[in-house]
Every structure is written in structure tokens, then in C-alpha cells.
Design goal:
The protein has about 350 residues and is an alpha/beta fold. It folds into 2 domains: about 65-305, Metallo-dependent phosphatases (Purple Acid Phosphatase, chain A, domain 2); about 310-345, no CATH class. Helix content is about 30%, strand content about 15%. The protein contains 9 helices and 11 strands. The protein has helices at about 1-25, 80-90, 110-125, 145-155, 185-200, 220-230, 270-275, 310-325, 330; strands at about 65-70, 95-100, 130, 160, 165-170, 205-210, 235, 245-250, 250-255, 285-290, 295-300. A hairpin with a 2-residue loop joins strand 10 (about 285-290) and strand 11. Helix 5 (about 185-200) runs parallel beside helix 6. The longest helix is centred in the N-terminal third of the chain and has 25 residues, at about 1-25. The radius of gyration is 32 Å and the shape is globular.
Length: about 350
Amino acid sequence: MRRSAAVVKRTASMGILLLGAVWAWAEPPKPPSRPGAVAADGNPPEVSPRPWTARPVLDNRDQCQFAIVADRTGGARPGIFEAAVERLNLLRPGFVVCVGDLVEGYGKDEPNLVKQWQAFDGLVDRLAMRFYYVPGNHDLSNALGRRVWLERHGPTYYHFQHRDVLFLCLDSEEVGGENGGIASDGEQLAYFRQVLAEQRSASWTVVFLHKPLWETPDPGWLALEAALAGRQYIVFAGHRHQYARTIRQDRRYIRLATTGGMDVVKGPPVGREVSILAGRFDAVTWVTMTPDGPVIANLMLDGIWPENVTTVEMARTAELLKRLWEQLPARAAGAPPGASPVPADNR
């Protein structure tokens, strides 16, 4: 009896093995991973070697990106701020902040001042994203300028928070005068002291103002700086129309150049590279807030172009003009191909 049971068990085991073999033979083989195949979670399959680097994909939702525009006025050059608006709509930052000097101001003709603001607000309305106003001396040049600002834009100083980043927008003209300043015993300083006391959990604080009050130095600014002590923060200003970064209190203080404002640096025209080194350029400043702090890029307006910067038709026209250029008198005089018919000293 025991022998019969053993035979049956052995026979059943052989049958199962035989059935598994038949099933494996009948099942079609799985195709190998195709190049570019995507796993169920949307990521590339783990293959080796891999046609991509080991670096992370920088699409962290904890990061935010915004842009800053510098002085537009104080001798506005037509078309530059307008170009910045077009470029910003191509770049698509989360929002845009300015550092003041948006209109020329300094007049007592209210209809004319309102007309200036209507023109500027019309430019801002073209932006696809939010724009945060920060006043400059041209915007708050006198009692009329301050009243018109309050009527059109509300407070001259305020704060906002985006994710875990705190943004402070200051009025550097509270004191008035050529150097400006923040009143040491005024409402603005008390306001920001309270904001900083209530917003201790912010990972970073970003400060915007028009005049670089730390260069004076302004007593009210020094008091605000003391309130910022112990925080991770960065400061952006404008006014001088010349870019410069400095390290102060072990923090970055950046004075932006221009986005249309007059070039106030005297001297003969210089090459592009020298102008940039001298801090003389029109740009928008791109800021990416990361867990390790802000990453900053100054984007020159003449280096940002839309996708139709050159079309097939334009390329054909350019090639035709090149051929016509090569057929000018310089060729007939025996100059090498591609040489200019205009003497080098007169180009």
C-alpha cells in the first residue's frame, strides 16, 4: 500500500513538471525593452549602460522661480522695457518683482503723471504673470507722486509669502531727500519688525527696495538689518543703474543695473564684454529658490529670442543678401571672398 502511494506521488510530480514545461513552451517569450520604453511610473526603465546621466531631474515642486526687472526710468530709453515684457512672457517665471523707478515723475502736473502711470500699467498688463510693484524715487518724487501711487497701487511697502519664502517690499523713500531712507521710529520699520517676528518659519527672506540704503548707510536700514539677523536672506536694489554684488553680514546684497533706464556711466562706448564687467547692461534677473538658497542668473535682453528668431524665408533672404554683398566692388578689386567693401577704419 505504501509502495502504491509512493508511485502515485512520483507520477503526479512528473505530471506537474511535464505540464509546466508544456506551458513554458507554449507561452510566447517577452519582448526585450524597447529603446525609449517607459515604465509604469513614467520613468525610463533601469537598463545598463544608461543613455542618461545620474543627475536628478530638476522639477522639484518645492522650488519657485521668479524674475526681477530693474530701473526703467531716470532717462528711459524707448523700447527696452517693452522688450523685457515680451521676453518675460517667453521665460514664464512664476511672478515678476521690480525695484522701482517705473515712471519719470518729478513733476507737478497731475494729468501728465497719471498719463505716465497709465502707459506703464498698460505695459505690465501685457505680462502673463503677476507683477509686484516696489516704488523708487521717481515714483514717489513729491507729495503728488506719493498720493497718486497710493490711489493707484495702495501701500508703498508690504510683504507676501510664496511657499515657504518670505518677500519684503520696502519704501526706500520714506525719509525723502537725495539719499532716501527708512524712518528709524516710523511705521514701516515697526511693520517689518512685526512681520519678521511672526514669520520665523520662513526658510528664506528676499528683500526688495529701490535705493541701496546699506551704501549710505541709512540708520533705518541698519535697524531693519538687525531685525533680519539670524535669518537666511538676500537683498535686491536698484537706483545706481550699475550692477554690483557685495557680501555684507555674510549675505548677498545685489544692486541691479537697468531694464531701460539711462546709462549713467560716463565715458566712450565700449565693447559688450567690457560693458558687462562694468555693470552696464539691460537685463532681467532670474531667481530660482532652492532648499540651499537662491540661484541667480542675469539674462541679457539681447540674448533671449522667440522660436521664430529665424524662419526658412528669413534664412533664404539672408543668404541672398550675403551673395549680393560678395558681388560688391571689393570682389572686383581682387579682395578675397567674404571681404567687406568698406575699409575697416570706416565700418
